[in-house]
Amino acid sequence: MARWPPVSSVRNPSLKLQGLTPYDPKYLPADSYMSANENPQDVSEELRRKIESAIRAVPLNRYPDPLATELREMIADANGLERDQVLIGNGGDELLFNTALAWGGVGRTFLNMPPTFSVYEANARLTDTDILSIPRIKERDFAIDEEAVLEAVSGPDSQVDFTIIASPNNPTGLRAPQGFLLELLDATDALVMVDEAYFEFSRETMRPYLDSHENLIILRTFSKAFSLAGVRLGYLLGSPDVIRQYLKVRQPYSVDAVSQAIGRVVFANRAGFEPGIDAIISERDRLFKELQGINGVKPYPSHANWVLFSVPEAEAVWQSLYDQGVLVRDLSGTPGLEGMLRVTVGLPEQNDSFLHALKAALEGVREDGR
Questions:
Q1: Radius of gyration over alpha carbons of the chain, in Å?
Q2: Looking at the whole model, is its pTM more than 0.90?
Q3: Residue 109: enclosing H or E segment and its boundaries?
Q4: How far apart (Å, rounded) are the C-alpha atoms in residues 293 and 287?
Q5: 369 pLDDT exceeds 70?
C-alpha cells in the first residue's frame, strides 16, 4: 500500500530554518492566565454591544479596505499626524516581520539588544539578515549598554541598517531612556523602531520626536491595554517616506474587515480603558513589593504590565505554579535569563492567588532540597 505523503514528495525546507525554534507562547489551560501579558479584563458588555453592532454592518462578501483608511485616520488624528504617517497591521507581529523584509536581507545588519522579544532576532534570521547583538547589562536591571550601542551605529564604517528597541522592554520591564533614544537617532541614519506595545502602562512615548527624526518609527498594538489580543491589530507611526516603504512589502488585505470594525469602535472608546490601566499599574507596583518580601525571590523593576523575577529551581517552581492552576512564563531557558519567570499583572484576586501559590511552590522546592 502506498504511503502518504510519499517520502520523496517534499523537498527539504530552506537552510535558514535549521536551528530556528518556532515561537511558542506556551498556550496551556489554566485557572489564572498570567503568562502572555494580556489585559486581565475583557472589553465591557456595553462596548461589546457596540462591537457587535459594528460587525453586523460589515459586508462579509467584500474585500476589506486594504489600508484600513478610516481607522488610520482616527489614529492619525489622535496623534496629531496625517493619514500617510500611520499604517495598520495584522497585530504588531506582521509589522515587525515587514520591518525585517524592508530593512533586512542579505548583506544587511540588524542591531539587537538581548534579552528582548525573541521575534526580532527570528525575523532577522528568516530574512538572511546579519545580527549584531549587544547584550543588556544584567547588573543594572537589564539596562541598555548605551555606550556600546552608540559606538556600533556611529561613524561611516557602521554596518547597522536597523534596530528595534522595546520600551518598556519585554521581558525585562524597563523603559529605554528617552535621552539615549534621541542620541541614537542623531547618531545614525539607520531605521530605529521603538516598540511601544506597552507604552500605556509606562506613560511615556517617543511620539513628540517623530517630526524631527525621519529615521524613527513607532510600533503600537491594540492587544495589551485595549484588551484585544484575540483580534490582532497593530499600527505604526512614522514619516510618510518610511511608511511608503512598508507598503511595498505588506500583504494585501492583511487586516480583515471585522478586525477593522472592532478597532474603530475600541479606539473611539479608548478613554474607557484608562481606569483599568491605572488599576494594572497599581497592582504591578503591589506585586513588585510583595515579591521583594519573599525569601529567595528577586523581582526586577517594571514599567509594563508584568514583573520579571528570579527564583531558585525556576523550572520546578513554574511546574508547581501550573499544578496549582497559575500559568506564568518560564524564561529560565533563555540566555541571560537563567532562573527567571515572568508574571503578568492580573486582577487583584489573581495576583493574590499567584503570590499564595508561589510561596507554596518555594516551600516545596526547599523541602525537596533537604
A1: 22
A2: yes
A3: strand 109-112
A4: 10
A5: no
